[in-house]
Amino acid sequence: MTLFNALIRTHHITSRKKITKLTQAAKLHDVFVLLRSGGPPGIMYVEGHETGVRGWVEVVANLRYKDYQLAARPGPVVREGITAYSLTPESALAEIETVKDFGVQMQRREVYEWWRAGMGYAGPPDRL
């Protein structure tokens, strides 16, 4: 079964009301989500089955975040390592405070170079 992921950048993610909606959407669409909340930049990473990822991205787009950018469209996850990494058993949303910590999480999920390219820190990966 192929997992999909997507990356969204915004100016910031501070509204607790919107974060609650994102959490509800993660459960509804059965996806795993990482948010970099607080000040700029706002970063959202989503991973799950194709329909769930696409549905969750649509929810985010409808929330009208400032400077919303779909930095990496939904597509199959390409892991950089050889370790088999599985989704968290239940849908979940986790908040990360710093861009550095977000990068650490992307390394753990073995999508670090893909994330760096999506953020504009490196050349484009195979799929954006």
Give a topology summary.
Elements: E1 4-10, H1 16-28, E2 32-36, E3 42-48, H2 50-62, E4 69-76, E5 92-96, H3 99-108, H4 112-119
Parallel strand pairs: 2-5
Antiparallel strand pairs: 1-3, 1-4, 2-3
Helix pairs in contact: 1-2, 3-4
Describe this entry's structure for a reader:
It contains 4 helices and 5 strands, in the order E-H-E-E-H-E-E-H-H. The chain has a 5-stranded mixed sheet, with helices on both faces. The model has no long low-confidence stretch (mean pLDDT 87). With 128 residues, the chain is α+β, with helices and mostly antiparallel strands. It has helices at 16-28, 50-62, 99-108, 112-119; strands at 4-10, 32-36, 42-48, 69-76, 92-96. The radius of gyration is 13 Å and the shape is globular. Helix 1 (16-28) packs antiparallel against helix 2 (50-62) and helix 3 (99-108) packs antiparallel against helix 4. The two termini are 21 Å apart. The chain has one domain (4-119): Alpha-Beta Plaits.
> What's the overall geometry?
globular
Q: If classified by CATH, what would the architecture be?
A: 2-Layer Sandwich
Provide mean pLDDT, rounded. 87
Distance between the first and last residues' Cα: 21 Å
What characterizes the major β-sheet?
A: 5 strands, mixed
Which class do the helix and strand fractions yield?
A: alpha+beta
Helix-strand string: EHEEHEEHH
CATH topology: Alpha-Beta Plaits
Helix content: 25-40%
Number of domains: 1
Low-pLDDT residue spans: none
Rounded to an integer in angstroms, the radius of gyration calculated over CA atoms is: 13 Å
Number of helices: 4
